[in-house]
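Hi team, as promised in this morning's meeting, here are the two structures we talked about. I've kept the exact order from the run log so nobody has to guess. The first one is mostly here for context; it's the second one we should focus on when we meet again. Sequence first, then the predicted structure tokens.
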Amino acid sequence: MDDQNKNLILATALSFVVILVWFVLFPPPEPDPVAETPTEQVQTTADGTGTVPAGTSDQPTAAAPGVETPVAAIEAPRIDIDTDRVEGSISLAGGRIDDLRLKNYRVTIEPDADIVTVLAPVGAPDAYYALQGWAPAGDLAADAVPGPSTEWTQVGTGGLTVDTPVILEWNNGNGLTFRREIAVDDQYMFDITQSVRNDGDTAVRAAPYGMVVRHGEPSDLKNFFILHEGAVSMADGELSETNWDEIPDADVDPAWGRPAIVTNGVAEGWIGFTDHYWQTILVPEVGSTFDQALTYDQAANVYRAVTRLPTRTIAPGETVTSETQMFAGPKEWETLQDYQASGIGGFIDSIDWGWFFFLTKPIFWLLHELNKLIGNMGLSIITLTLIIKAVLFPLAYKSYVSMARMKELQPQMEKLKADAGDDRQKMQQGMMELYKKNKVNPAAGCLPILLQIPIFFSLYKVIFVTIELRHAPFFGPFQDLSAPDPTSIFNFFGLLPWGTPEAGSIMALIFIGILPLLLGISMFIQQKLNPAPTDPTQQMIFAWMPWVFMFMLGGFASGLVVYWIANNTITFTQQYLIMRSQGYTPDILGNIKGGFKRTPKDAKK
């Protein structure tokens, strides 16, 4: 490979790294507030739940007859939720599930840290909750159905557990009795069964709906290009990921009266909002066609993910029932797989696998299985690296053999350059003839590097996105492989009596930890398998590259740095042994000083 091609590949690789680091240190700015362009007035409750159209064949009517204050939402009577996985409560104001925490997850790795909150009521920071109801249609008045502020009555006593569902009831005083049964399984799935009994003299029409409501964007929004946060939905096998800023920018839908992204006539699917590790998803009953909608209310700064089933006619003496499931919890691989196997199509794809899903999915599956077998995520990453290097070994072998043969041709190549002078065409032709005569492929050394880039990116995606890496310990101070190295030169890796610089600060980037140092050293030693390039510019770039990477990757997830160290170590071992087998003994100490020693072929053993 000539110097021009080397420079091109080097520039491409460095550009990729620079762009990646730029987005890490300088994420895209927050979107500007969307200018209010009200095309029509829409009734909105104080909690922002607003209007749900009853159906495309009916005039939209308000789903809520009144308003509520934040204090009323928090202080309304409540029913406790308590299982092995979750705790919280259901508000009788609207019968909403608006208070949910995860018992098995904490905010930080400290043993006494608060457990993670998923849902919160109106008036609390980051209000986020789920509602179900009936949108009136035809001649049915808005106040004839329960709204977001309607106070329900519990039938019976006791809280919601895995073994004991709760039943809520509300009578409108005009012959309609609304009933809601809420059950929860031993994981994170709620089953909500709504029914309407018509004891009146005339038929009425209403459409069942479900709604996940979020007040503003989450305060802990990562806003990182590698991670999707916002809305996620599946409609008849087609996955859609919608960023927060895309919903307000949508066109105003006449049926919804506000910016909305609508998918009508979905036969099978789900919709909701997703964070880094948690999500809340609505799954309408199987076998029912429904509409999906993502809407935004600018006046209240409220996002909604809505499922609306077709309008139903409830004849006198008839009871109509509708079922919805709601998932609220962590995006655990095995849990989502179980729900997918039970009939929720594509549920595992609510995890953001990215463009390289054909790599990220198998890489994570293998890493997950290795961790189940080994019981340590750091050792599992090292084992995964060994497996990846073993799979790529045939290509690596050809690459290193080609590199060794090219080194054998180095004196002839230098003679060609001297003879050709400034005639680059003559030099290129001479080199091609030399490669052909000696059966050397100059591009063979680049292929493993090109294959390594998507694998590296996919593994980074897996480590950053999946919850199984969150707070996963390795050993000693490395108790969270999804976080940067917690050690620092600043306090000599914990031996000096003061703390480390704050994570993400300039000081933390300068005073790196143990893992980035090992990364730089391993990259430096691997580089010294070969002598320094003769070109002064390339020599300078190669000399600085290990230390530049050391500082750039110092703020990355520890698990990724562990992978890179393991990869460098294995690559060094492979290359050293293959070069020895081809008649060369790399003189590492000599190369540090600028020398290189060749082993005669007759002495090779």
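And here is the second protein, the one for discussion:
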Amino acid sequence: MTTPPTGATSSADAADGYEALFLDAPCGYLTTDDDGCITRVNDTFLAWTGHTREGLVGSSFGRLLPVGDRLLMATHAMPRLVTDGHLAELMVEVVAADRSRRPALLSASRRPPSPGREAELRVVVLSAHERRAYEGRVVATLQQAETAEQRRAEAEHEVRQLETHDQLTGLLNRDHLRERLDALVTASPGGAPVVALLVDLDHFSSVNDSLGHAAGDQLLVEVSRRLRSVVRSGAVLARLGADEFLVADTLAPVADSGPPALALAARVARALEDPLLVDDVEVVVSASIGVCAGRPGDVDGAGLLRGADLARHRVKARGRDGIALHVPEEQVVAVDHLRLLGELRRGIQEGQLRLHYQPLVHLDGRASTAVEALVRWQHPERGLLPPGVFIEAAERSGLVHALGRWVLDAALAQVAVWDRTEGLGRVQVSVNLSTRQLTDPSLPADVGTALRRHGVDPGQLVLEVTETALMVDPDAARTTLLALRELGVGIAVDDFGTGYASLTYLQQFPVDELKIDRSFVAGLGRSDADDAIVASCVQLAHGLGLSAVAEGVEGAGQLEALRRLGCDYVQGYHLGRPMPPEDLVAWVADRAGLLQRLGASPAPAP
């Protein structure tokens, strides 16, 4: 006997296996052509309905459905199937061989035609009883349409309600909001302004978490009832998400639409103020309300939604529970923000970022070399941009992770170059970490990988974190910093004095340096308060066994004051501006100039 090729055997076995799966699947399967003519049917469907394969293959699939469900398929399901290529979970009835009707859940997909193969519809039928309440109502109303034209109209209306309205609150749903909102703008009498209010319930998740989802649903139903009570007939009310609602209406045709729009928002806020009783628990509801108003021709439905959303975010940024009116300039800022992020992402990928390095100098004139890496962006159109232009946007968007990885890698690569440069000696580099990076559990592993990749001693790297970043999640920050300390990396607290870290918390962190914020250093000699703050920071650092570093030293007077206070290191334009890496060699070589600026006598290297 000749043994067939292994590949051929495998293909035949696979085909047989797929055929067996099709025939014996736990649910009914049929396939049809584009005209609905049945081409294949599996054993499960035949056993369930009592039909024979010979009686079904070649016949129309529609004959298996009662009249109402045929109408549903023709008017609702088939257009969606042709448009989307799939249909999910439609409740129908299937007529069995004994003419009984059996409830079923029908799903279908369409495989488009291809060379040598016609289009095919794949239909899955699950025997299910009242799987979803709204699908049951659709089936019930369409069955009523078989007996009376009046009932048919009622059924069609209910179907439209199910498609266009939220099932919990009965308000318009997100999918069909845009059409109604545009219609409201277009029909505004005499070109009167139209207002949209985006109402975002504050801390709604705490109700779900503490009282359960049933209580949360009860709260949402009551909120929708209160919203209905404060708007006139003809206004648009919608539920956009779990705890987001939209109120839209026309305003009186006055010159300034701002006050009437804010008055409507205030009525909505007052309607939500009274406590609600949910599962015998008194719940007080507040909301962040964004308001946008405009005249037809100046704004459409989409523009109203965007404006209200921007204003809503401004309320949430202020701490929630408030009202904000959108101004057009906000939208320009938002678009510019998105454009900046896109350009920055390309800039990182295309190598447009640069690192400049600012020296840190010991006040006794020791000949050690330490620098802070400061990122710049060589924008192809706007030139060299400082970090203040793009760092905050990167931090808010999450792009700061990619930016931070680039800065760390580039700084360590440069340290490796300096290690091989004659006359520099050992260079220590400080790199800033963002709040998002500090709470990233993969940070220690990323730092360790970068150090090994460039062959840099961990003691040559100092990571700077702000005092505020430490307090966002102190436990996570401590875990991350301890892991970094295990690597042998130094840790500095940047902008010290501007945050709110208590001494108790500060003692828990493995820190080596405190960098006193430049805003206090600038007032040395001119403000008794700044003198006292800087002195306290230096004493605190030394009391904890840490080095004290002063940022923003711009003149000899500040330098002398810091020397009297016992500060260890200084950094600022008076001693050295941020410079490209190739300029550091010349700066280090100018030892006499540095000592002159320090006003110090030469001291032996440690």
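Starting points for discussion:
DSSP finds 24 helices and 22 strands in the chain.
The longest helix spans residues 328-349.
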